[in-house]
Request: fold
Amino acid sequence: MNRRNVTYTRTANIPEHIYREAEYRSKNLPVHKKSHRKEEANGIGCLGEVIAEHWMDRHGIKYTAELDNTAYDYRLENNLTIDVKTKDRRFKPRSDFDNSAPLYNHEHQKPDYFLFLSLERDKDDDSNDLRRFHTAHIVGSISYNELDKVGLRFLEGEKDWRNHTKFWTDCLNIEMWQLISIQETVDLFKGYKKEPTNMAGLNIPIIQEMKSRIDSGEYKPRQIPI
Reply:
């Protein structure tokens, strides 16, 4: 397998002004009618956006926020569009951890790249305070076209046999090792590169296991990466 990403950027001790900005943005957002976690999802998403902006500022990536645009979050100086996807986690990133994009707006939300973040909290902290997330991890990116090509579909109500996660909506999933590395992400976002050095590899063992479960009737048929 082409494991092109084995690193991530960690931001520990998140500054207080980032929490405050995320809270401000969240309070001024409507709740998406298809959102699973309602107001809490807004808070997590806003925290991910503010951290992504902090990260882009630190790396000299010039961007314009277009957060009211439902097709993407940011337009970069080189005209690339970026959408930030943020996940609530209780553990540090691992190369086999999934990163997800919901399918309910996949035909509409078509950025050039998705940037994936993980927010880490203590495993026993189930509060709604954004400060429960003590560390943020930027784990990599992937183009819309690559995600569409190599992502594995899980359907609403199914459980992932690997970690027993139950999906609240149809999702397109890839593992962290399939993402573009942090350094190449910076180079792409700054316009130093037109495309990553390596294309995303197929997750052959997981695809084979999914096919087996579909054949046995455990999972419904769906489009499988080839």
Remarks:
- Residues 9-215 form one domain.
- The mean pLDDT is 91.
- The two ends are 14 Å apart (CA to CA).
- The beta strands are 9-12, 63-65, 74-76, 81-89, 98-102, 113-121, 133-143, 152-154, 171-175.
